[in-house]
Amino acid sequence: MKSLITCLINLSLSFTLLGEQTLFNGENLDGWDGNPLHWSVVNGAIVGVNTEENPTKGNTFLIWQGGSLNDFDLSLQCKIDSGNSGIQYRSFIKPGKHDGWRIGGYQADFESGEKYSGICYGEAFRGILSMRGDRTTLSRDESGKLIKSVEKIGEASKLGLAVKKQEWNTYRIVAKGFRFEHYINGQKMCELIDDDEKERRSEGLLAFQVHAGPPMKVYFKDIILK
């Protein structure tokens, strides 16, 4: 009986581990890869910076080394002091000669400004894909031109009030098939339905962004993947 109970406990733990992963240990960047000039761990949080002393020459990323994601439900805490950042998913290493920390793909945007937090942006990948307050369906017409069909699901300015300035926010991303949903502090910010068979991505990398340009600072912690 004891061995049976032990077996059941181990099986239960296996299902838990398979169903939910904590991606950051709160102490160091084990399991992640990025430029140490821009990424570190401070007070239990991943911190990404772009400074005047050590500016990045292009957008640079901290890349999770745990594998390629397809369908998932990701939640994390994030805070930004200044500038623009984002959470890359189903993404790819950009081609060409570079330092290895250049990423393209779907991005859940996060900024210190008023307009872009919560949108779905295509980093090196078709540009803005869905704005805050929109459900956007992407497709191609007969000539191959990208078509965006938009349905309003909320008022962008009102949804923006849910984003806490220079405080911790809960960011959630749900990817199922080719439907992607972004939530901040429980508010649905946008939805993307990617019917663009030419460029849509069924799997790829998870990463965080430090944006080139003016000095910026962003924080991430409590990263849970289901």
Give structural notes:
The chain has 226 residues and is mainly beta. The protein is built from 2 helices and 17 strands. Strands 1, 3, 4, 6, 11, 12, 13, 14, 15 and 17 form a 10-stranded mixed beta sheet that branches. A 7-stranded antiparallel beta sheet has the order 2-5-16-7-8-9-10, with no helix packed on it. The radius of gyration is 18 Å and the shape is globular. The N terminus is likely disordered.
Q: Rough shape? A: globular
User: Which parts are unreliable, with pLDDT below 50 for 5 consecutive residues or more?
Assistant: 1-17
Question: What is the element string, with H for helices and E for strands?
Answer: HEEEEEEEEEEEEHEEEEE
Overall pLDDT confidence: 93
Total number of beta strands:
17
User: Which structural class is indicated by helix and strand composition?
Assistant: mainly beta
Q: Helix amount, in percent? A: 10-25%
Quaternary organisation of the protein chains: single chain
In whole angstroms, the N-to-C terminal distance is 32 Å
Strand content: over 45%
- Tally the helices: 2
Radius of gyration: 18 Å
Biggest β-sheet strands, sense, barrel? 10 strands, mixed
